[in-house]
Design brief:
single chain; alpha+beta; Alpha-Beta Plaits; 4-stranded antiparallel β-sheet; 4 strands; 40% helix; 18% strand; binds guanosine-5'-triphosphate; binds magnesium ion; cytoplasm
Length: 137
């Protein structure tokens, strides 16, 4: 499909990058379909990241993602998943290409500023986690 899901993570919000990141996203041609400023409880962060529950960093990830407010959004663009992952850069900001969001705003692999869905199926699941039908425009 032509949609993806993103979260501006607690580190980027706390460091004052929410506006700059939204501007980068919109300037790159993504249309905002849904947008929410919210905070995950530990329980809901655990549910969101359930696919990673066997990974060694799962506990740290869940506690980090529930440590402060985030911005969640559904975005639309042709080839959205791939285009958005190109815009945000590698998971490890030390390896993220120049000019990518993680290159500019992230400090470490665990506090890496932004999330982008990795498949159409997950974009659908993740968007549904945060947004009802009447919150999409
Ligand atoms: P997301 O867009 O956030 O899903 O990142 P990603 O798809 O680039 O990475 P992945 O789905 O593999 O991992 C999910 C998140 O777990 C990453 O964004 C990181 O914040 C975190 N993470 C991944 N690898 C590590 C790691 O080795 N250590 C720690 N502490 N966190 C990690
Ligand atoms: Mg991922």
């Amino acid at each position: 499909t032509n949609r993806t899901f993103t979260m501006i993570k607690p580190d980027a919000v706390a460091n004052g990058h929410m506006g700059a990141i939204l501007n980068d996203i919109i300037s790159a041609g993504f249309k905002v379909i849904a947008l929410k400023y919210t905070k995950l409880s530990e329980e809901s962060a655990g549910k969101f990241y359930e696919v990673h529950k066997e990974r060694p960093f799962y506990k740290d990830l869940v506690s980090f993602m529930s440590s402060g407010p985030i911005v969640a959004a559904i975005l639309e663009k042709d080839n959205a998943i791939e285009e958005f992952r190109k815009l945000i850069g590698s998971t490890n900001p030390a390896e993220a290409a120049e000019g990518t969001i993680r290159n500019k705003y992230a400090k470490s692999i665990d506090a890496n500023a932004i999330h982008g869905s990795d498949s159409d199926e997950n974009a659908e699941i993740e968007g549904n986690f945060f947004f009802s039908a009447d919150e999409r425009f």
